[in-house]
Amino acid sequence: MSGPLAGIRVVEFAGLGPTPFAAMMLADMGADVIRLDRPGGPLMSAGDGRLAFLNRSRASVAVDLKSEQGRDFARGLIERADIVIEGFRPGVMERLGLGPEVVAGPDTRLIYGRMTGWGQQGPLADKAGHDINYIAMTGALHMVGPADRPPPPPLNLFGDYGGGALFLVTGILAALVERGRSGRGQVVDAAMVDGAASLLTELFAWRAMGFWTDERGANLLDGGAYFYRCYATSDGRYMAIGAIEPQFHAAFITGLGLDPADFPDHMDRRQWHDRALRIEAVFRTRTRAEWVETFEPHDACVTPVLTPAEAAEHPANTDRRVFTAGDAPQPVPAPRLSRTGSRIASPPGLPGEGGRAALIRFGVPTAAFEPLIGQGILRAE
Question: Is residue 141 within 8 Å of residue 135, measured between CB atoms?
């Protein structure tokens, strides 16, 4: 293994969304991760499991946690790990006898990462939810979309990955640093509602200052500003505009063939609606490709809105290698470190694949897992 986390062992209890994303990040950074899958197959069976990119860079062992032998095996594996990641509802790991109070004593070095939607306690802790529910309860969803329509779901980036996985990884890495000083591990309690709310810190500040209103589609970054939004082109494509600063705003207006003198005080909200209508009409006179060519000489924060396929092939992205090449491109690991860079160590595998070698790498004797494979409690190929 290579990367900044080489030598760090992680046990991941297979989940959906933020849990595998967090484990993927740690694995891409060089951690030796074993994913404990369900014996019946992947949690989501739709599609080809070998294209489940969130499962890359690590091996899998399928284990029956409903059996006492399976739970004993999991406990033994955790004893050899530096980090545990789980994303079950509160109380599930405790009922399995795998909660932190059992596997992580007060002097343990184990870092126990927990990923939930609503947190480990509270009136909603036992309720189900998805990204859209978590961001709805933080005020984030209310801020997205036009005023005359319901808020559109911003994919599942805000709660699952931004507010969930990235905060879990941040907490785990912080705990690793602190463990280097104290020699002790701790529990990392990451809730998507916490992380999503934290992402809103600046917007809450602007709201307190009176710079942001609760009216959707009327603010600087929510499409209300004519210079920070998307416009349709004549071929049904779109251009994205982010010309906030005065110099970029002037370059944007100039690129449209208009006179910046006709657009003074671009932060005057009273002008935004009428100016947006005027600019909409201008953008509809050319195709997206023509507008890209038009704005190429201008440093105006104007870019085409690309499809995923287009993004993977755009010269700016291929030059930096933002995506892998081939018929099924995927984003490469981020961020990039100068000496101990991250990498995709292996393609996604099906439950059980790579498990034998990974267990041996963890120092698990073959006598401890071969009988369980024979009994059907484990699958490790």
Answer: yes
- Give the residue ranges of the chain where pLDDT is below 50: none
Alpha-carbon distance of 177 to 171, in angstroms, equals 10
130 tagged catalytic = yes
Handedness of CA 61, 64, 68, 74 (dihedral sign): positive
Q: Which pTM does this prediction carry? A: 0.95
**Whole-number pLDDT of residue 105:** 79
Whole-angstrom distance between the N-terminal and C-terminal Cα of the chain? 20
Active site residue 273: no
pLDDT value for 134 = 98
Rounded Cα gap, residues 165 and 19, in angstroms:
6
The catalytic position among 72, 130, 298, 314 is: 130
Residue 172 has a pLDDT of 98
Q: Which single residue is written with the structure tokens 């024979």?
A: 374
Catalytic pick from 32, 64, 131, 160? 160
**What pLDDT is stored for residue 43 in this prediction?**
58
Contact 116, 87 (CB under 8 A): yes
What is residue 127's predicted lDDT score, i.e. its pLDDT?
96
